[in-house]
């Protein structure tokens, strides 16, 4: 409203009345008004013009359309296959779990004896000629029809002395069907277990037969065994029992925890433990004894070696003479703190030096090893690792703490199928084709073993070669003694 318009009132009251007057755009719509009718018509028209809702979700509709466009027909089977769906199925499924469907298919498949019998004898003989004796014998024993075609000649060929290893491999495949028997390697046949479920590792001087074998006391055919420590062996039959129970079930053998033992001999205490990792049996043996400070070289030999066979009291592999295992043990013994003399002037001198250095002398202080004896050693010719430590241990007889040397050994024993295996033959010194740094390049045996039992890890240790110069002198070398 302009200033010249009639009816304008000047003043304070008129100013507030005009300021608080509602605008026309804020006035409420009334029933029957033209604006309300226009809004309703616009809403109805927008609803009528909206596109219809799809029956399927957009992603599902895209999948159906993609399958229709990219479906392919297999030229041999006549099936329509979507290769993208096959790849996604392979990624989501477990490829290792193939045993259950295979057994179901084998149970419901039609008999194939007629197809086997339709092939000529010369063809089956030619097929068997490409196989080794163990595989040819397994083919002949696959069914009665194959046995009639191939005959017993492939089974009789296993008795030849040159096929000794093939016969063991053939008989090892029968473990799954003989839970109450064990394969005897001196006899190369199965024997009935006499201590089923109660087998235990005994000392080497105790006769502990697990089955009745005619070659039990035959020194010309000793059973395969591995030396653990002085007076303790690990027969290969216990490796069989542990791996059979792992592969087929508890009724076939023993759990790995049942093989562990604790024993003492010649002032040494030993603890053994076993673990199965990726189808192979791992062993850890920890040996320790109290060690006095300032030992002479002859006293160190008396502490470390047995007087019976001049082998170490602790657990070692067959290559312990070659390399730096024994020099590292002697170096660790020299790091034990030596006691000080009780002379008056020398005692005063030591006190003054300790006061200047700000420290006190403690004969039971924690011992720090040097760069030569501290690292973990790995044998390059077999799967074995060693760790040498100097620790404080409690002597229950004197009731005080003493310094002790602790030597821990980790080894990979193998799969337990045959004593001719690469791991078992390597730790016993019967194979020269094993490279431990190639087999355990990324992770050590000790790390694998300790990670299975505890969340704590070993202190960071360098892993160096037990025999860096690769010299094989054996008993001819004098460095080991």
TrEMBL record:
Disordered: annotated span: 1-54, 94-115
Protein name: F-box domain-containing protein
Sequence ranges of Basic residues compositional bias: 21-33
Domain of life (superkingdom): Eukaryota
Organism: Penicillium nalgiovense
């Amino acid at each position: 409203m302009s200033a010249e318009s009639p009816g304008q009132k000047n003043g304070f009251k008129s100013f507030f009345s005009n300021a608080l007057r509602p605008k026309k755009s804020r006035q409420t719509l009334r029933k029957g008004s033209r604006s309300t009718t226009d809004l309703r018509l616009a809403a109805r028209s927008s609803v009528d013009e909206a596109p219809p809702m799809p029956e399927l979700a957009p992603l599902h509709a895209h999948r159906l359309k993609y399958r229709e466009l990219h479906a392919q027909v297999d030229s041999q089977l006549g099936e329509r296959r979507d290769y993208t769906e096959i790849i996604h199925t392979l990624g989501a499924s477990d490829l290792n779990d193939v045993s259950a469907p295979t057994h179901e298919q084998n149970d419901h498949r039609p008999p194939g004896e007629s197809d086997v019998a339709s092939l000529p004898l010369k063809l089956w003989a030619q097929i068997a000629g490409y196989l080794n004796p163990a595989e040819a014998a397994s083919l002949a024993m696959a069914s009665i029809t194959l046995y009639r075609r191939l005959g017993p000649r492939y089974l009789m060929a296993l008795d030849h002395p040159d096929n000794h290893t093939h016969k063991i491999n053939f008989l090892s495949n029968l473990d799954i069907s003989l839970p109450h028997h064990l394969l005897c390697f001196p006899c190369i046949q199965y024997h009935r277990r006499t201590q089923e479920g109660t087998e235990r590792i005994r000392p080497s001087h105790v006769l502990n037969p697990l089955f009745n074998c005619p070659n039990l006391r035959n020194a010309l055919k000793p059973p395969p065994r591995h030396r653990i420590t002085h007076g303790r062996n690990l027969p290969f039959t216990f490796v069989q029992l542990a791996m059979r129970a792992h592969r087929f079930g508890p009724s076939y053998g023993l759990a790995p925890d049942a093989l562990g033992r604790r024993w003492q001999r010649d002032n040494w205490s030993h603890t053994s433990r076993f673990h199965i990792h990726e189808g192979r049996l791992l062993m850890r043996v920890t040996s320790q004894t109290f060690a006095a400070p300032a030992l002479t070289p002859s006293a160190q030999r008396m502490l470390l070696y047995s007087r019976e066979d001049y082998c170490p009291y602790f657990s070692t592999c067959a290559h312990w003479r070659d390399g730096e295992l024994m020099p590292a043990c002697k170096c660790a013994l020299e790091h034990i703190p030596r006691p000080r003399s009780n002379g008056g002037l020398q005692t005063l001198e030591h006190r003054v030096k300790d006061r200047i250095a700000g420290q006190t002398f403690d004969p039971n202080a924690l011992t720090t090893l040097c760069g030569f004896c501290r690292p973990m050693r790995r044998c390059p010719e077999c799967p074995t690792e060693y760790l040498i430590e100097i620790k404080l241990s409690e002597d229950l007889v004197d009731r005080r703490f003493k310094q002790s040397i602790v030597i821990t050994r980790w080894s990979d024993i193998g799969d337990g199928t045959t004593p001719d295996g690469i791991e078992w033959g390597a730790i016993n010194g019967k194979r020269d084709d094993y490279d431990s740094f190639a087999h355990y390049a990324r992770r050590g045996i000790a790390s694998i073993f300790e990670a299975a039992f505890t969340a704590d890890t070993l202190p960071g240790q360098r892993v160096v070669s037990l025999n860096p110069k690769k010299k094989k002198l054996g008993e001819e070398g004098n460095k080991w003694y």
